[in-house]
C-alpha cells in the first residue's frame, strides 16, 4: 500500500490483535510461538517488538479491518465473521476491497447461523419471507437474504441477539454459534449456516512495501511451522520388522517414519511425526500390534 503524503514510511511491521476477549490470548500465544516477544505492556495499546521489528496494537476486534484499510497496521488477527461482515459492507457501498484473509489460524471456531424458535417446523429460507431477523451481522445477512431471494427485515442489535424473539423484536435471529448452549437456553434452534468462521490472519488487499512485506513473509513462514506442529507429537518406539505392516496403518496422520536398524537382527527403532492426537487408546492399539517402548515427545519447532 503506498503511504499517503502525511504517513511516514514504517520499517517495522505492525499487527493488530484483540485487546481482550476470546481471541486475545490465543492470538498472542500463537505469535509468541513464532518467536515474537514484546516489551510487555498489557494495559496499554501498543507493545514494542523486541526479538523482531514486529509491534502489536491492542484494539477492539471490530476496529481491525479498518485499521488495515487505513494502513495504520499491516496485519491483524480477527474472526472471519468480522472481516467478511466489513468486507460485505464495503462491497455493498461499492468501495474497493481494502483487506483480505491471508490464512486461517485454527482457533476461535464458530458459525454464523440463522436460528428460529424451537417450535418452528423449518421448511427452508422462504419461511423467513416477511419476517424480522435480529443480528449484529447486517451485511452478511442482507447478502444471504438477497441470494436466497427472501424479503425479510434486518433488525440490527449489537449484542444479546438471542433474546430478541422472546422480547418480540424479531421472529428469527442470525448470530454466532459455537456449542449451541446460548440458542438452547433461549428456546431457539439453528437451521442454516451462513459462514464457518475462525480466527484468521488478515492483511491489506494490496501488497505491502518491500521491508514490511519481507517481515510479513517471514512471519507467515513461521506461522506455517507453528500451525503444523500445533497438535503434532513425535512418537518413538521399537518393533520387529515383521509387524511393520500392522503398525503403519495405525499411523495414518504420520509423516513417513524414520526407521533405524537396532542390530543385525529383526529389531527396528522408529520415529514418526504424528499430526493428529496421540491418545492413550492409540498407544494401546500400537502396543497390541507389536510396538514396544512407546514414547511421545512434544515438538517445539519445525522449519520445512
Ligand atoms: N461462542 C464462540 N465460540 C467461539 N468463538 C467465538 C464465539 N463467539 C465469538 N467467537 C469468535 O471470537 C471473536 C471475538 O469474540 P468476542 O466475544 O471476544 O468479541 P467482542 O465482544 O466483539 O470483543 P471486542 O471487545 O474486541 O469488540 C468473534 O468475532 C468470533 O470470531
Ligand atoms: O453457541 P455458544 O457456545 O453458546 O456461543 C454463542 C454465543 O457466544 C457469543 O456470545 P458471547 O458469549 O461472546 O457474548 P456477547 O456476544 O454478549 O459478547 C455469540 O454472540 C453467542 O451469543
Ligand atoms: Mg467486537
TrEMBL record:
Molecular function GO terms recorded: ATP phosphoribosyltransferase activity
Top-level taxonomic group: Bacteria
Catalyzed reactions per annotation: 1-(5-phospho-beta-D-ribosyl)-ATP + diphosphate = 5-phospho-alpha-D-ribose 1-diphosphate + ATP
Enzyme Commission numbers on file: 2.4.2.17
Cofactor(s), by name: Mg(2+)
Keywords assigned by UniProt, alphabetized: Amino-acid biosynthesis, ATP-binding, Cytoplasm, Glycosyltransferase, Histidine biosynthesis, Magnesium, Metal-binding, Nucleotide-binding, Transferase
Function: Catalyzes the condensation of ATP and 5-phosphoribose 1-diphosphate to form N'-(5'-phosphoribosyl)-ATP (PR-ATP). Has a crucial role in the pathway because the rate of histidine biosynthesis seems to be controlled primarily by regulation of HisG enzymatic activity.
Protein name (database record): ATP phosphoribosyltransferase
Species, as recorded: Lysobacter stagni
Gene transcribed to yield this protein: hisG
Amino acid at each position: 500500500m503506498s503511504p499517503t503524503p502525511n504517513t511516514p514510511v514504517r520499517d517495522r511491521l505492525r499487527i493488530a490483535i484483540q485487546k481482550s476477549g476470546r481471541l486475545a490470548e490465543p492470538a498472542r500465544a500463537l505469535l509468541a510461538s513464532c518467536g515474537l516477544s514484546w516489551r510487555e505492556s498489557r494495559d496499554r495499546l501498543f507493545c514494542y517488538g523486541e526479538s523482531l521489528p514486529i509491534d502489536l496494537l491492542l484494539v477492539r476486534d471490530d476496529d481491525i479491518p479498518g485499521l488495515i484499510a487505513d494502513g495504520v497496521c499491516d496485519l491483524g488477527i480477527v474472526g472471519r465473521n468480522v472481516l467478511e461482515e466489513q468486507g460485505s459492507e464495503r462491497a455493498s457501498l461499492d468501495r474497493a476491497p481494502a483487506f483480505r484473509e491471508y490464512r486461517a489460524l485454527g482457533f476461535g471456531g464458530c458459525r454464523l447461523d440463522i436460528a428460529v424458535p424451537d417450535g418452528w417446523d423449518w421448511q427452508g429460507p422462504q419461511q423467513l419471507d416477511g419476517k424480522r431477523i435480529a443480528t449484529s451481522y447486517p451485511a452478511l445477512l442482507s447478502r444471504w437474504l438477497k441470494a436466497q431471494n427472501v424479503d425479510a427485515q434486518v433488525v440490527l442489535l449489537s449484542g444479546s441477539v438471542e433474546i430478541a424473539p422472546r422480547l418480540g423484536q424479531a421472529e428469527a435471529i442470525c448470530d454466532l454459534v459455537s456449542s449451541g448452549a446460548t440458542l438452547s437456553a433461549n428456546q431457539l434452534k439453528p437451521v442454516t449456516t451462513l459462514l464457518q468462521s475462525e480466527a484468521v490472519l488478515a492483511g491489506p488487499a494490496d501488497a505491502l512495501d518491500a521491508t514490511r512485506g519481507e517481515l510479513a513473509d517471514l512471519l507467515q513462514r513461521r506461522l506455517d511451522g507453528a500451525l503444523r506442529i500445533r497438535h503434532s507429537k513425535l512418537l518413538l518406539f521399537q518393533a520387529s520388522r515383521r509387524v511393520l505392516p500392522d503398525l503403519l496403518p495405525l499411523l495414518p496422520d504420520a509423516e513417513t517414519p524414520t526407521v533405524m536398524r537396532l542390530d543385525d537382527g529383526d529389531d527396528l527403532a522408529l520415529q514418526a511425526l504424528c499430526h493428529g492426537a496421540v491418545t492413550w487408546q492409540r498407544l494401546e492399539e500400537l502396543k497390541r500390534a507389536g510396538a514396544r517402548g512407546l514414547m511421545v515427545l512434544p515438538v517445539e519447532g519445525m522449519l520445512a
